[in-house]
């Protein structure tokens, strides 16, 4: 089986079913340094769009993988950083639509760069865009998302409005709830006003389901998420980890078993597991989530990062 540098999975996704990941950005290159990010601290904080990985090599890998017509629900731009930073995302999208039109394309994005009109044009052929908006006040935006210094919240919200006006595909807006920061009445009211302006097809509430960049960040309860969902005036659903990912068709019990066996030998970070098992960190994270929820492993933050250990209870 070929080894892929820019593709990962297919992975089990609660929202997208069987999803082939396309990683266009080296870790960890992003316009934000979110306190909850499962990929860890941003090491290259930027809003510069360029070819971070060779577009032609991504196209070659996609051609090899897709030629046997595997069963997929989506091909998804996601991975170790912000995919819209890659200047070739439009070219890659057109390649997929022209050569493999049977597959739907999704974009997981932090939604910060749509103030650039050329980016809005580049994503027109994508079937589903899933941007994020975690705050509607400057203070909370800076506390949760820790943006690149030139990135302003007003521009982000305006960009999302412009995207919605000029894009005919499905638009699902994710709001990540961090207790103590964006779950207050004032912030929810601000978010509600921003969401009304953006007018997404769906609003999806999420919260922490595995350790983030900052250790004090905790998960919101389902009751809290349900209360927030009632306050928002949109078609709002809760997508946080209250469902079983292992019920998704692409869940691979062999991968889960390999992760457990590796952790039994020694505690590992996600990067350790990725190197040992030859799997993309995002793919590892999908299985870590289920193991944490089932209380088979537990996290411990040490100097080198978050290590996962077997729960001996």
User: Helix coverage percent of residues?
Assistant: 25-40%
Instruction: Give the class from helix and strand content and strand pairing.
Output: alpha/beta
Largest sheet: 8 strands, mixed
Second-tier CATH architecture of the largest domain: Alpha-Beta Barrel
CATH topology of the largest domain: TIM Barrel
> CATH homologous superfamily of the largest domain - what is it?
Aldolase class I
Can you walk me through this structure?
There is one protein chain. This protein has two domains: 7-248, TIM Barrel (Alpha-Beta Barrel); 252-313, Winged helix-like DNA-binding domain superfamily/Winged helix DNA-binding domain (Arc Repressor Mutant, subunit A). The radius of gyration is 19 Å and the shape is globular. The chain is α/β, with parallel strands linked by helices. α1 (55-66) packs parallel to α2 (89-99), α8 (253-265) packs across α10 and α9 (270-277) packs across α10 (281-293). The longest helix is centred in the middle third of the chain and has 14 residues, at 185-198. The termini are far apart. The strands form three sheets. An eight-stranded mixed β-sheet has the order 1-2-5-6-7-8-9-10, with helices on both faces. Strands 3-4 form a two-stranded parallel ribbon. It has a two-stranded antiparallel ribbon with strand order 11-12. A hairpin with a 3-residue loop joins β1 and β2 (17-22). It contains ten helices and twelve strands. The protein is 35% helix and 18% strand.
